[in-house]
Amino acid sequence: MVEVLIAISFIIGISAILTILFSLVKQPPIIAYLIAGVVVGPLVLNLINSSSDTSLIQTLSRIGVAFLLFIVGLSLDFKVLKEIGKISILAGVAEIIVVGFFGYLLAGWLGFGVIGSVYIAISLALSSTVVVVKILSDKKQLENLHGRLALGILIVQDIVASIALMILPMTQNISGDSKILFLKEFGLATLLLIIVFLISAFIFRRLLDYLAKSQEAMFLFGIAWALTLSVLFNKLGFSMEIGALVAGMSLASGMYSNDLSGKMKPLRDFFVVLFFVFFGSQLNAINSHLVFQAIILSIFVIILKPILTMLILRFFGYSKKTNFLASISLAQISEFSLIIVLLGFNIGQLNQDVLNLSILVALITIAFSTYFINYSEAITKKIINLKFMNLFDGGLKCDDCHLEKNYDIVLFGYHRVGYKLLQRLRKMHENFVVVDYNPNVVRSLNKQGIDAIYGDAGNKNFIDDLPLAKAKMIISTIPEEASNLLIVRALKELKSEAVMIMTAEQPRYAIDLYKAGADYVIIPHHLGGWYASEIIEKYKKDKKKYSEMGKIHFNELNKAKNSSNFKN
What we know:
Blueprint: H1 2-24, H2 29-40, H3 51-74, H4 80-84, H5 86-109, H6 114-125, H7 129-138, H8 145-167, H9 179-211, H10 215-235, H11 240-251, H12 257-281, H13 288-314, H14 320-328, H15 335-346, H16 352-374, H17 376-383, E1 409-412, H18 417-427, E2 432-436, H19 439-447, E3 452-454, H20 460-465, E4 473-476, H21 481-493, E5 499-503, H22 507-516, E6 520-522, H23 524-539, H24 543-561, H25 564-567
Parallel strand pairs: 1-2, 1-4, 2-3, 4-5, 5-6
Helix pairs in contact: 1-2, 1-3, 2-12, 2-16, 3-10, 3-11, 3-12, 5-6, 5-8, 5-13, 6-15, 7-8, 7-16, 8-14, 8-15, 9-11, 10-11, 13-14, 13-16, 15-16, 21-22
């Protein structure tokens, strides 16, 4: 036992050092954990060199996966499908089918059998929610159109991956007479799901209301529920990871799901380190054939997968810029890919070669895609105007753009601040037009009788074609500095005397816009702070006033949430 604790101490120490080093080169912790596993594995230090060490660390890593899937399950409330919108669902399903199909053919060409090709195809089709959400969130792009599209597709992928985790272990019993056994297992799984969800709906609702009074009780309940179902599903012949996933899903629709998720994350993070380290330590051989296969599959994920995704998004009307930014965000395999491959290996459906291959592909694709996402704007500028990129442009035709008409006010961007500004402009009966690069917003506004033009404010040719010359006010709620500078410079070239109101996320960007000629720059959090201070000064400690304002605000948020424009 002492030797095992020493090994775990070394593992954590090496992981911590590598995490710090990789953060300096803008790489996510997953890469550091996997490489730490390679370092402590048989290829380098061979710290996990006994069956007892391996057994204990594998057990701890499986607990980590269970907690990870429990938290994933907490986020998989099926109401979320309504939240992310119809297009994200269709695009997500289409991406999995198309990428999975070509991935299956490629795996077959590389010499893998039917079962191995199926696992590889699923792995290649999935992208990393952990990596993508973290980087886009750090870059403040999660609420941009391409960020929301990528997030919607990732949510669909997570749901499909969860279903795959439930079904794949049962497929080992589909052959000849064992089909009856498969049907029995499937029926048992369905019955278990029904019972678990009924317990959650009719018993846990009141229980959680009581437990919520104690932070410690809620935390312990989350651990107990995840582990109880993990053990139950394992005893009944299913994987313990599926039990944890179901435990999370059963609580996802409740009001305490976010609170439970937040409490479990620190515990999850510790055990998940051990999972990725253990997975990396399974890389026990590297040869030229394995490297060749890993490079081919990585090229597919990094280049062909984004191309296929862009072609899919094109059919939904998005611009080539939006399609490109969303697609390169998905150019890696997922943590779910690793979990699915390890599951296939543990139940005997996959061999060591597929496990080794998955580790190398994960390292290559996550590393490259991290740089692609971090430097996406620079990459976009270099290739967006190349001729072949027009193939991925699903933009609305100019017949729908109303370009021949002049407007007093031009509002760039409907999402976020633009939603409120449009309401006020309509009440003022102003002559205005909305410019947005989300085709669904444009179609929706046009249906409401509001003039809207589809286009990308970061495209100078498009800006030059807009009816800006006679406008008296230009309002941009777009947070990208480059697009706002382009608008301001275009107005300067026209010698426009229009009022120019721009938006910036950071004060330093606002200073640049003022220097360029903007009349006023909206900094949302500064403006929000100023407005909040005004309210506090006006209402002081009058609880009734705040409550009245809160109800109005709640109704407005619900209205925006239920709007199709808010979703996409």
